[in-house]
Amino acid sequence: DAGVIQSPRHEVTEMGQEVTLRCKPISGHNSLFWYRQTMMRGLELLIYFNNNVPIDDSGMPEDRFSAKMPNASFSTLKIQPSEPRDSAVYFCASSLYGSGANVLTFGAGSRLTVL
Amino acid sequence: AQKITQTQPGMFVQEKEAVTLDCTYDTSDPSYGLFWYKQPSSGEMIFLIYQGSYDQQNATEGRYSLNFQKARKSANLVISASQLGDSAMYFCAMREGTGNQFYFGTGTSLTVIP
Q1: Which of A71, A74, A81, B107 could link A16 by a cystine bridge, Cβ 3.0 to 4.6 Å?
Q2: What is the mean pLDDT of each run of 10 residues along chain A (115 residues)?
């Protein structure tokens, strides 16, 4: 298995630009999570999906952030417009909800820098 | 209240020695899962070990073991025979009940000294 695939690995953009982060979960996993990690705030859950349906988006900072999961093998996290304070590492993770351990498997992360 | 507490921001251990990273958790649900992840300087989050609340024995995975003390609500990670490659951030996490929400601690930075 290729694991959770995220792209891009690094993104540098200017304030006000739109940013789209992409994620392909592990095949067969039915839950997908978007996390954000910064030195100041640690690891924060932004949103998670079960069976492609958003379950909890209470961690999404504001309306500038949106996430979609059009099918079981693809999700996007969009920031529009981006701001310098959005600079962080964004992780996508997937799991098999309903399995015994339900281990969360992370992608390599997308490091976003907003200038 | 914090669901997961890691009280050691940084730890040092001599190579080949054992080290214990502390984790306490807070839940009233009798069913939960406890996890440890490693984050090396390269940034990826690597799953290390899992302990279910109903598991009778402490989980072990190679040099990693989880010292599960249910009454104390602690789930400490023990790394035996430390290696230089063990230098990383270590995160403790919990999943409550049958839900799909994972709670992470603030992490412990481990440095292995040659």
Answers
A1: A81
A2: 92 97 96 95 94 94 94 97 97 90 93 98
**Does a cis peptide bond (omega within 30 degrees of 0) precede residue A81?**
yes
Tokens coding A102: 């339900």
Chain B CB contacts of A33 under 8 Å are: 102
Q: How far are the Cα atoms of A71, A110, A111, B13, B90 from residue B44, in angstroms, in the given order?
A: 25, 10, 11, 22, 11
* Contact: A42, B106; criterion CB under 8 Å: yes
User: What is the rounded distance in angstroms from the CA atom of residue B56 to the CA atom of residue B60?
Assistant: 12
Chain B residue numbers touching A108 (CB-CB < 8 A): 43-44
Answer for the pair B74, B83: CB distance below 8 angstroms, yes or no. Answer: no
d(CA A6, CA A3): 10
